[in-house]
Amino acid sequence: MTTMRTRTDNALEIRDLRGGYRGTQVLHGISLDVPAGSITALLGPNGAGKTTLLRMVSGLLRPTAGSVTFNGQDTAKLSPTRRAAAGLCLIPEGKGVFPNLTVKDNLRLQIPPRARSRSYEEALELFPVLRRRLNSPAGRMSGGEQQILALARARLASPSLILLDEVSMGLAPRIVEQIFDALRILSSSGAALLMVEQYVSQALAMSEFAYILDRGTLSFGGRASELDADSVMESYLKQGRA
Q1: 97 vs 9, 45, 108, 140, 144, CA distance in Å?
Q2: 20 phi, psi to nearest 5 deg
C-alpha cells in the first residue's frame, strides 16, 4: 500500500484504530493522516467501514483500540461535545439541520458562544441560495438546499476539521455540482476536510490526498492524483457492493 509522507502539521492522526458494533469488528487497525488545510477523500464500497471511522473520530462511537489525535490532542477522554468545541465538525449522511427551525435560526444557532458578535450574513454571502429562504423552515427546502444549509452551518462554526459523510447522497447530478462548489468554499476557509463520497471522480478531482477502505482495512493511502476513478469504481463493482 502506498503511504503518505510524515507531516507535523496534521489536523487529524489516526493510529491502529479498531472497533465496531456489538462485538462485531468493523475496523481492523486503521492508520491515516489528514494534513491541516487539506481535502482528503475516504473512498470504499458500501460496508467498508467509512461511516464507522467518522463516528469514532467524532466521538459518537468508542474504538476498542488505537488512537485519534486532533490538532495534536489525544481525543480519548473528549466527549463529542468537547471535540466539537475544539473545532471538529461532523456533517452526517442525511441533512444536518433542524427541520422545524427557520434557515435564519439554523444559522444563528451554529455561531459559537465565543463569537456571538458575528453575523450569519457571512454565510449568506458565501451561500447566496439561502438568502431567499431565510425565514422558511429548513424542512420545507429541497434536499440540495438543506445540504447547503448544513455546509453553511459548518462554516459558521469556524472548525479546523470537517468530517463529511456522503453529503451528495440522494441528490440529482446538477445539485451535486452545487454541493461540490460549496465544499470548495468550505475548504477555502482553511478547514481540513475528510470526506466520504460516492462520486469518486469529483472527490478525487478536488482532493489532495485519498484513502481507500475495504472490509475495514486500507488498500491505498497517498496522493489523490495517483488514483484513477474508473479503476476505483471497477474494483467496487468486482466486489458486488458498489
Answers
A1: 31, 27, 12, 12, 12
A2: 180, -140
Contact present, 224 and 38 (Cβ < 8 Å) = no
Report the alpha-carbon distance of residue 230 to residue 228 in Å, rounded: 6
pLDDT of 228 > 60? The answer is: yes
In the chain, DSSP assigns E strands to 10-21, 24-35, 39-43, 65-70, 73-74, 88-91, 161-165, 192-196, 209-214, 217-223
| Angle, helices 143-156/103-110, rounded to nearest 10 degrees | 30
SS3 call for 112: coil
* Cα dist from 6 to 65, 92, 187, 208, 229, whole Å: 22, 29, 22, 15, 25
Looking at residue 3, what is its pLDDT? 43
> What are 63-111's pLDDT values in tens digits?
999 999 999 999 999 999 999 999 999 999 877 899 999 999 999 998 8
pLDDT above 50 for 222: yes
Spell out the domains of the chain, with CATH numbers in brackets. Answer: 10-236 (3.40.50.300)
